[in-house]
Every structure is written in structure tokens, then in C-alpha cells.
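A quick aside before the break. I want you to see a complete sequence-to-structure record at least once, exactly as it would be stored in a machine-readable document. Don't worry about memorizing anything.
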Amino acid sequence: MAKNTTKSKKTAKSVRSASGRRKLSAKKVLYLVLAFVLVFVAALTWRLFVYTPSASRVLKTVTGDIKAAYANLAVDNTVWPAQMGSQLSLHDSAYNFNVSSQNMPSFYVTMREVSGGTGRGKIAVTPETADSVIAKRMKAYRFSVDEANSKLPVVAYGRRGTTCLEIYDKTQAVLTFTCYEHSQIYEKSKEAQPFVKAYNIANSTKPVTSAYTVGPIVIKSQNGAGVIGSSRTANYDIAEAVFSKGVTKKLILFYKKGSGDWRYVAQANDEYGFSCADYKADSDIRAAMHDQVCLDDFGPTRLDTNNRVAQ
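That is the input. The structure line, written in C-alpha cells, reads:
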């Protein structure tokens, strides 16, 4: 009889122990659920109120949005738009000139022909149609709209040190979308300084002032696209930059020998407008510009060759 009593006590103890383990497991589950909820709320709060996507992220996402929405809109992120599209002037107090918003990471929306059906995208009437797609994405990213620039031709979005600009040029039918961190204004001004210095040396009576906007700038060894390409002569480099004053834009040509400073060559209205006489001004310019397009009495040609260039 005593043995059965002892056995019953052991059984009751075992049951209580198992029950305790079940209760402990239930508490662990509850703690895990609470921890998950707290992490989720913290992540959501960070996403909504702290996180700001980078300028490059915004550009990439909006590019995909426009391509997915419209079959007949082309989105081009070329680094050399020349005088295509429109710009705003951006200023850093360390410099006495402005830099173009087109110096910043940008893309350009234009119309394109669609053949063989439109696919999944809709048909846009003009590049301006992309405005609604951009606005939707910027709202999702919680960018605020500048009240002074809230409708095209200029819409400015901002959030936590990042600015995005949407500029529509109706004459050219080009919509430009630019995004940049504010620190990039100083960086781009610093990059432009050597070209401003070279311009001022050659144009000392009419130097660059605060009324000027510089850019975009393209160094041809890094991007040889366009009418004028990278230098054909070893140890030389070529660069082009747009200098604007008011509504007047000029394309300025520079060259560099080795690790030396950039030097001014000439200015024109476009890449076909540089005079062959300017290319022959001295031996270094001639070497840098060998086989590049220039304008002589008979039209566009290539320096030191017999290759005529059709316009």
C-alpha cells in the first residue's frame, strides 16, 4: 500500500512538472511575439519617419516606374545632354559662380516611337505625362513639395538633405529629373573650378561672375560620346562644358596635356561650331584636337585630315 502511495506522488509531481514546462513554453512564445511586434513597429517607424532613400535610389526607382507605366516614353541617363533640357542654378558660398543642376545625377524623358504593339504600358501624350508617376513615387518616399515650385515647368521635392527637381522644357519636349544630396553642390563646384580658372585666364576682360552657371562638364577620356570624342593623341585630354549667363549658353572647349592644368581652346553654340583656326592656335591644341571635327570655310571637317563631315 505504501509503495502505491509513493508511486502516486511521483506521478503527480511529473504531471506538475510537465504543466510547468508547458506554461514556460507559453511565456516564451508570448515574449517572442512581443519582441517581434516591437521590432516591426521600430522598423516601420524608421522607414516612415527616419529613412530617406539616397538620390541614386530615387532615380533608379522612378526610372523603372516611368518605363513600366508608359510604352512610348524613353528614359535616358546620359551624362552628356549638351544643351538638351533645362536647368536650375545651384550655388555654394565657397565659390563665386553657380553650377548647373544638370551636373547632378539626372535622367531625361523624351518621346519614342513604338512598333509592334504597346505592350503593357500606356501611351503618353508628351513627356510631361510622366509627372503623375514621379509625384506618386515621391509621395510614397515622403518627400515634401516646395510650395514655390509645386507645378511644372518646375517641381521641387525635398527631404532630409536631399533635393529632387523635375523640370519640363516644352520647347524641346524634354522632362529632366534630377536628384542630389546638398553636399554635392560643393563637390560639383570644386570639380568645375579648374575649368572656370582656365576660362578666366583666356577671357580676363570678361571673367566668370556670380551671374554664370557652369555645367554640365564632360571629360572626354571618361566619356567620348558626341561629335567630339576623346583625344586621338597620347598624353592629351579634351573636355567640354556649358557656360550659361542668363538665357545665353555657350559650349566651351578645353584641353590638357599630361598632368598639367586644363587650358581654354574656344567656344561655340554647339559641337559643330568650333573653328579649325582655333584648333591650330598652337602645337599643343593642334595635337590634342587632331582628327576632331571643326568648322572651316567649306563646312565641318576633321583637323589635319581630308575627311569631310556631313552635317
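Two observations worth writing down. The longest helix spans residues 2-50. Helices lie at 2-50, 55-69, 131-140, 183-202, 276-279, 283-288. We'll return to this after the break.
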